[in-house]
Amino acid sequence: MGVFSTRQKTGQASSLPRHVAVIMDGNGRWAQKRGLPRTAGHKAGAENFRTIATYCKDIGIEYLTAYAFSTENWKRPQSEVDAIMGLLDEYLHESIETMARDNIRLRFLGDTSVLSPRLRALIDETDELTRHITGFQANICLNYGGRDELVRAAKAFACDCVEGKCAPEDLTEAKFPEYLWSSGLPDPELLIRPGGELRMSNFLLWQCAYSEIYVTDTLWPDFGTDELDRALVWYQTRDRRFGGLSEKK
Ligand code: FPP
Fold first, then answer.
1. Sheet bearing 136-144, strands edge to edge
2. 220-226 average pLDDT score
3. Residues with CB under 6 A from ligand 1
């Protein structure tokens, strides 16, 4: 039983982020270290996503957003792309059975229109089945790119202007996010990057402007609930100033 599940039971779950974002990195290295094909790492990564999502829900985090496939990941060998798509297919099949029962809403961020008709149908079905759930939401970023999201949002706003629905001066920092894939979600307070790389990799560029960033060398399939507890404890030590001055001073 982790620190936060124990705290929640005793009613002490304070200062938890509402929204945690995660770059699920290190699956390939995890597999290679074990002499397994990279796809075995993605499989272990998908299983870990389930574990972490369930734990987040149990301890009272409201949103978990994970980077599953970027707009740039199409550059990988076709066999690896196919394996990741196959895992998503498997995951969605299982999710259709379990998500509504487990009170988890599943939402997808990114351009899913280019995916196979079968995957798109599964995504629509999962979306439909879990749309009413308000307790916990897991977001899977699929064919997602931060720059692509911003360009699409700018285009959509420009189109609304051309159609007379709004004028350029109506655009504010509060309005712009309505045009993003993540419309309606609060910004993640905590971004977790397993696998040790110190970069954003085109993930949630607008949304993570003020996120606290936790990087660990632990590879994603090994990033279990104890490691998430460590990230959350670290988060609670952060002095979030948003460009202002610390309240403590
Ligand atoms: C990055 O690790 C991981 C990916 C590009 C794919 C992540 C996909 C999954 C975990 C499967 C589908 C997800 C769900 C939620 C069902 P990497 O391959 O770049 O690792 P490396 O840096 O060690 O090579």
1. 104-109, 136-144, 63-70, 19-23, 190-194, 212-216
2. 98
3. 24-29, 42, 45-46, 49, 66, 68, 73, 84, 87-88, 91, 140, 195
